[in-house]
Amino acid sequence: MESGLLSPSLNNLSLIPPQEEKVSVPIQDKPHTVTTLEPGVLEKMVNLLVPLHQKQNPFFVPAFLCTYRRLTRTGQVLDLLFNRYAHFQPNCEEDEQVKNTLCSMIAMWLDQYPEDFCQSKDLTNLNKLMAYALLHMPSSYLAVRGHLLLTQLQDQETKETVTKTEDSLDLGPHTTLAPEIRAEDVSVMAADAVLESVASPAAEEDLVPPHLLEVQYVSSV
């Protein structure tokens, strides 16, 4: 049947993989690869985060949060972001919208990549975030979320410290401890002492009064 006839190249298509399709690991997947940017480029990218997030752009902010570690550190992004929005006018509707957008974006960042704020032992990035949130938006979800995370990490650190202290005070399996003395053991030891005192020759004389010994000697004579 003509419908079942295929050319030799089509018959072998599933057997011979195309030469141009090669599996390669993209550069952005390498955690230690850092891309050098021209001066001012990173700052321009950070300045676009809030406006594009406010316009509900679905691509820029997620892409930046996913890849910025190839460009810089979390602390530098926070510094640029907080310096860009360091001052707000009171009772200004526009500034309130900016704060709401900023809060929403950082909360998304905190929820999706909490490790960015918890890497250092002193929690520098998280404390920096909390200081900014408490200053400009103390009643926001961001402030509450950051406080909960900070409390959890501090409690975890305290538990780890207590565990290490207990482990350091552990005497180990090879240390000989004094045996526990029970009431029944005291009774047994007291009974043994009485039997030993009765069985010893010197103790027999102590148990029999001297005048009885004389009576026994006289009667025996």
Give a verbal description of the structure.
The chain is 60% helix and 0% strand. With 221 residues, the protein is mainly alpha-helical. Helix 6 (93-112) packs parallel to helix 8 and helix 7 packs antiparallel against helix 8. The longest helix has 29 residues, at 141-169. The radius of gyration is 41 Å and the shape is globular. Mean pLDDT is 74; it is low at 1-32 and 212-221.
Task: Please specify the SSE layout and strand pairing.
Layout: H1 8-11, H2 41-47, H3 49-54, H4 60-67, H5 74-84, H6 93-112, H7 124-136, H8 141-169, H9 183-199, H10 201-207, H11 210-220
Helix pairs in contact: 2-5, 5-7, 6-8, 7-8
Regions with little confidence, pLDDT below 50 for 5+ residues? 1-32, 212-221
Give the oligomeric state of the chains in this entry, treating copies of one chain as homo and distinct chains as hetero.
Answer: single chain
If you average the pLDDT, what whole number results?
74
The H/E string reads HHHHHHHHHHH
Structural class: mainly alpha
Question: How much of the sequence is in beta strands?
Answer: under 5%
Q: Report on the biggest sheet.
A: none
Distance from first to last alpha carbon: 144 Å
For the structure shown, list the relevant keywords.
221 residues, mainly alpha, 0% strand, disordered C terminus, disordered N terminus
Would you summarize the structure shown here?
This protein has helices at residues 8-11, 41-47, 49-54, 60-67, 74-84, 93-112, 124-136, 141-169, 183-199, 201-207, 210-220. By secondary structure, it is mainly alpha-helical.
